[in-house]
Amino acid sequence: MNTGEPTKIAGHRALLAIGLLCALLCGSASGTTYYVNAASGDDSGSGTSQSRPWKSLGKASHSRFEPGDQILLARGQVWPEQLTIPSSGTEAAPLTVGSYGTGAAPLIDAQNVRNRGVSVVGKSFVTLNDLAIQNSTSFSIEVFNSAHITITNCAIRNSARTAISVTGLSPAVRVDGCRYSQDEGFSINGGFVNVFSPVEGAVVSNNTVSGFTGRMAISFFDVNNAVAFGNKIDGGGIGIAINACSRNLTGGQIYDNVISNIASGPGDDGEAIELTGHVGAANPHCDQEKSHPFPVFTVSAEIYGNKIYGGPSTFGGIDGWHAIHCRLHDNEIVHMRKYGMQWTAASEDNEFFRNTIRDSGEAGIAIYAGSGTGSAKIHNNVIEGAPVGISADSAAQVDEDYNSVVRVRSPRSTSVRAGLHTQDH
């Protein structure tokens, strides 16, 4: 464990594991299990035994279920339909959609003609587990105005807009252990997981996103206490983002992710991790109030233990804009086109420590206050290979010490006073 890691962060994995186990098992003791088999099913049957399964997702979508019930789809089968979740569960007895039998995960194929694979609207305490979903023209999984939705171990392929979209008032969503892939030449317009909901809490963890070409792989808009950990992301315009569009955000945690080959493109800067705290035309990801540059909202988060590997178009490793009271530590950032870490626009009281930053095109760590003020404590970092090790403009207040600055043209900007214990090589 990192020495700077608070106890509540260390407990995220344990709490997530307990929650997922309960979501998968708690309902099985008292609920009814329904089976769906596209090959041998009959919608006129009871659906309550493997010998008399239902056939279609339409039957499941238009039936009534009780808390604790399970809807299990046969492995090795394909449904060219949309599944709409018709009922809610409870905290003690969630409604679960999963799989049974042997073979490949049950596949919901939108066939490039249907907008959605699975839709959860106005429901609560629903778990989707071990499903495969592909070829949606919009969202593979849609969550709207729904609370405590858990999505685990799902394989998603070729979503034209966003693989998992969470909007409306949808608190406490969890996405864990899922995989997103796309065919060569396929273009996705949105992201892997997009949570655009002014709520408290969302967890996106242990997912794999491969060969991604969309804008933001994992993004939280207006979500307090947003958590992203253990994800592996390859490609895209931004890896993980927390954006404040209509209120100040606190409690963000981004840790132990591996992010590679982020590429700048239209509308995206090409940063692996981004905190953006501003409403107005300068933030293209916030749709409201674009014509009004104020008010400004801020983001606070802890970012640690991430490994970031750049490609030819990776602008920067970790970027903050109007990001205050942030702690960035124990991250490894290699081969950025411009900055390892860049904090700008009146970002106050931020701390950078025990990070390793190698081969940045302009600066290892940059603190630019612009027309406002900005302050940062930078200590115990290793910065190698950059035109400037620690860069700042005249408005920024930077306290640096105990850093190792190696293979740089200039260890620091003239506005940054050298620490008494920093070693320049």
Strand content is: over 45%
Domain count, please report it: 1
**Separation of the first and last Cα atoms:** 30 Å
Summing up helix and strand content along with how strands pair, one would put the structural category as mainly beta
Per CATH, the class reads Mainly Beta
Please state the CA-atom Rg, rounded to the nearest Å: 23 Å
Question: How many strands?
Answer: 39
Sum up the overall morphology in one term.
Answer: elongated
Largest sheet, if any? 25 strands, parallel
What is the CATH topology classification name? Pectate Lyase C-like
Poorly predicted tracts of residues: 1-5, 288-292
By oligomeric state, this entry counts as single chain
CATH superfamily descriptor:
Single-stranded right-handed beta-helix, Pectin lyase-like
The CATH architecture category equals 3 Solenoid
Structure, explained:
- Helices cover 5% and strands 48% of the residues.
- The protein is elongated.
- It has one domain (7-424): Pectate Lyase C-like (3 Solenoid).
- By secondary structure, it is mainly beta.
- Helix 3 links the parallel strand 1 (33-36) and strand 2 (70-74).
- The chain is built from three helices and 39 strands.
- The strands form two sheets. It has a 25-stranded parallel beta sheet that branches.
Describe this structure in a few short sentences.
This protein is mainly beta.
